[in-house]
Amino acid sequence: MAQPVNFGPLAQQPAYRLVSEKIRHAIISGEIEAGELLPTETDLAEQFGVTRSTVREAIRLLEHVGILGRADRKRLVVTRPCTEAVGRSVSSAMLMHQVTFEELWQVAMGLEPLAGKLACLSATDAEKQLLADNLVRTREVMADHDALLEAEIDFHNLVAQATHNSALLLARAPLNELFYPAWGAVIRALSPGERILVAHQHIYDAICAGDQGKAEEWMEKHMRDFRRGIEMGNLGFDQPVQG
Amino acid sequence: MAQPVNFGPLAQQPAYRLVSEKIRHAIISGEIEAGELLPTETDLAEQFGVTRSTVREAIRLLEHVGILGRADRKRLVVTRPCTEAVGRSVSSAMLMHQVTFEELWQVAMGLEPLAGKLACLSATDAEKQLLADNLVRTREVMADHDALLEAEIDFHNLVAQATHNSALLLARAPLNELFYPAWGAVIRALSPGERILVAHQHIYDAICAGDQGKAEEWMEKHMRDFRRGIEMGNLGFDQPVQG
DNA sequence: TGCTGACATATTGTCCGACAATATGTCAAT
DNA sequence: ATTGACATATTGTCGGACAATATGTCAGCA
Q1: Contacts of A33 (CB under 8 A, 6+ apart)
Q2: Which residue in the set B81, B96, B106 is minimally distant from A96, CB to CB?
Q3: Strands (E), B19-148
């Protein structure tokens, strides 16, 4: 019996996608470097042989992920997606998936201790100084819940940056956007400022001493505190986080 | 002395961004559910009081991240961004940041053992069966490098899915896109099929037995094998991965 | 010289209208 | 019930147009 021929759907992409892919490829392959200016929309339209509208749609496709930004709200510029841009898009996805605080916490348990551990190996003096400054500031604003939350988020960002690991920085981006903000409710409910500070202090000490085990251990403790705080405050540990 | 008034730059967003944000918000807030069809472009244009072109640009803005997709290449539909879409955008970011294999490996060391551990708690029988099937297939295609790589990637995806943790699934999405493909070179160079299979087998056993420690430990061993493979093959452990 | 202001130019954001290709729905004919 | 013809709806693409704004140029003036 002759097999029925299966042609499969010939997926011809709309032009704006093709153009978008071409630009994306040119950027990723390094043909256009970060910081460089893109040709004008009219130029691109000519080069690709399509209309400006099409080019614009292609550009929008790349804009939201942060590959393209604008230098001065006029000329388009190739940018390396900042962690915030990545965080935004991943966070959207997580929100739509109704990610619970517990799920986020588990991810944080995987990444934050790792960040602490790695920071021990690669933190520069300047970065240690920034951490020290953060500790001082944290102590100062202990009473102000909003400022405290901000300092807390900053601290973890600084630790992550001290790892000099961009992949880690990007992977934990959604934590900044969703996990720590949710933590704000705990701060308002339980005022755990002192406890936060102690943990941060130990983590800082460990990083300065290059003690990977201690950094990891205290980051884990710190994360477990988060969890306990959410549970004690009855703040919906197993509820979907909200943006 | 009177403080000089600081007006700050009034950031008026272009209309296509406002429209995009409105749609995004409507989606995230659940006003429009996933799977639901969006109004037609002409409708949206009328509702927002802008032109269709503007609406289209707004839509493109959301399309690349996977919030919007098309049902049948015609009607637009609200979709929850699949891990591939998220993986794509995060991967782009990582590529532009010249992420090295070592950096990715470190992230994998944070996430994959965690996935193994969590899978022990939540894997269903169906998921265990899928893992078992994967083991069989892996043994079958051991000689075919491409198929082996595919089976390898599948295995780790299955483990991750067995955690039922969407946040983890999304966070590790770029690994699928960048980390494991890079591993392909090792497979071709060293043919470590047997070694892969042994690790997978132990991980599978641990998950079936609910033995978190063993799952975590073997996943770590497995990851360390990756690292050693890259190093032994002199395949650029500290070089930027390429898409 | 060095600064200011007027002017032309370039570029983006937005609008309008148009058409082709394609999917969907309707209805008659078989 | 299936088929085919036809009208309709929707998206993809095109072309042109204009306002707002940033940039560059250049004369004029202290």
Answers
A1: A78
A2: B81
A3: 68-70, 76-78
Domains and CATH numbers, chain B: 15-78 (1.10.10.10), 84-232 (1.20.120.530)
Chain B residues touching residue A16 (CB < 8 angstroms): 60
User: What distance in Å separates residue B99's CA from the closest CA in chain A?
Assistant: 6
Report pLDDT for B75: 67
- Reading phi first (left if > 0) and then psi (alpha if -120 to 50, else beta), residue A232 is in alpha
**Which chain A residues are closer than 8 Å to B118 by Cβ?**
106
> pLDDT tens digit string along A101-128?
999 999 999 999 999 999 999 999 999 9
Burial tier of A75 (Cβ tally within 10 Å: 0-12, 13-18, 19+) = exposed
CA of A139 to C1' of D21 (A): 46
Closest CB from A16, A90, A109 relative to B86: A90
Place of tokens 């690669």: A122
Note the pLDDT tens digit of each residue in A161-204.
Answer: 999 999 999 999 999 999 888 888 888 888 888 999 999 999 99
Which residues are within 8 A (CB) of B129 and not within 5 positions of it... i.e. 6 or more apart? none
